Amino acid sequence: MTPPWLLPTFVLVLGYLLGSIPFGLLLTRFTGAGDLRQIGSGNIGATNVLRTGRKGLAAATLLLDLLKGAAAVLIGAALVDGGGPMAGAMAFIGHCYPVWLRFAGGKGVATMMGVVTAMYWPAGIVFAVVWLGALFGTKWSSVGGMSAAVSAPIAMFAFGRIDLVSVSLALALIVLWRHRANIARLLKGEEPKVGSSKQKAATE
Description:
The protein has 204 residues and is mostly helical. Helices cover 66% and strands 0% of the residues.
């Protein structure tokens, strides 16, 4: 007889492994754009991929990071009753802290958007609108990402999805933590804007 904990554990591990696929690193390496960890901030996300000058690669990284979060939720929901959010959360953790890269991953914004959208698509729309609005309004990539992350638990609450507020809030807090260096630069007035010639290697 199959132990009752086996399938939920499988879903958690699968979510983590799916989320830990470093698409930005793989795409830049396979296309000859270099080792992403040695470029710009060293981050494996789409913003740093953009610093290679390959806009198409950056867009592909963004899409794939989003899709792996959404896929984890959908697979988790299909395999375990109520397993979507926990699988999505593990995919997000996998992206931020991938075992393959010694737990030095991305900042999780695109993957969080995929998770939020798959859990409840209206909140995903809010996430996208806030992300783009804050990004183009301030020209700070970090502000766009953090604003979008914070909007997710607020949107879940506003739409009456109280069951999804806690997981959305947890992911938002991790996104803020991953952006702590950006927050410090913002407070000092040193955070470079998207497209600025003063972009520093440490920025996302």
